[in-house]
Amino acid sequence: MKTIGIIGAMPSELADLRAVLPYAKQETHAGYKFYSCEYKGKRIVNVCCGVAKVNAALCAQVLIDRMGAEVILNAGIAGGMNHCVHVCDIVIANEVMSHDVNPEFLVKYPPHCAVYPCDQALQERTAQICDRLGIRHHKGRIVSGEAFISSNEIKADICARMSPLAVDMESSAVGQCAYRNQVPFLSIRCISDNADDAGDMTSDEFEKVAAKQVADVVLALVEESF
């Protein structure tokens, strides 16, 4: 039975998922509460890692080492970083990277890589699910950093340097951990705001709707892909 790990940064990003999954066994490791259950012939382990990259990386490593995750899905909300990406659209990452770390240092020193690819088969299956559910979606780069982006100026700088479709605070860390452990990985994000001067207000308004949409996609992916 394949073990699929699902990481969300905030409880709201996992609430709709947990409402569907059956009763879960709880274990605590490194201060994180991991919930495991059998669902549709798979073992699902979901965990709320907390915000930002250190939390995400530490939690992902424990998920692999202690909970035996063979696949990791990072699910949640994100800010839109391209004019073609609208609130409530899904962004399927083809690769993830940090926007607040000089990539030259990551290439020069371990892990000698600054851009972490997402599993191609999972990307394609997620896109097919979005098509079937009638959800507008995009495939491209997601970048991560240690701050919630709600500034036109900062957004413009990140876009000029990295051309992402979405920005969050965890995907690159989970992707780097999965890369170093050679575990298939995918980040799936629903856009809750446009990462601009109105980002705080827009995110508050659409967070629950976006979280529900990404949960629907992740559950379908779990059911149909493993």
Question: How does this model look, in words?
Answer:
- The chain has 226 residues and is an alpha/beta fold.
- The chain has a single domain (3-225), classed as Nucleoside phosphorylase domain (Rossmann fold, 3-Layer(aba) Sandwich), CATH 3.40.50.
- The protein has helices spanning 11-20, 53-65, 103-108, 120-133, 152-162, 171-181, 199-225; strands spanning 3-8, 25-29, 32-39, 42-48, 71-80, 90-98, 116-117, 137-144, 166-168, 185-193.
- Strands 5-9-8-6-10 form a five-stranded mixed beta barrel.
- The radius of gyration is 16 Å and the shape is globular.
- The termini are close together.
- The mean pLDDT is 94.
- Pathway: Amino-acid biosynthesis; L-methionine biosynthesis via salvage pathway; S-methyl-5-thio-alpha-D-ribose 1-phosphate from S-methyl-5'-thioadenosine (hydrolase route): step 1/2.
- InterPro entries: MTA_SAH_Nsdase, Nucleoside_phosphorylase_d, Nucleoside_phosphorylase_sf.
- One of its GO terms (molecular function) is methylthioadenosine nucleosidase activity.
- This is adenosylhomocysteine nucleosidase.
- It comes from Ruminococcus champanellensis (strain DSM 18848 / JCM 17042 / KCTC 15320 / 18P13).
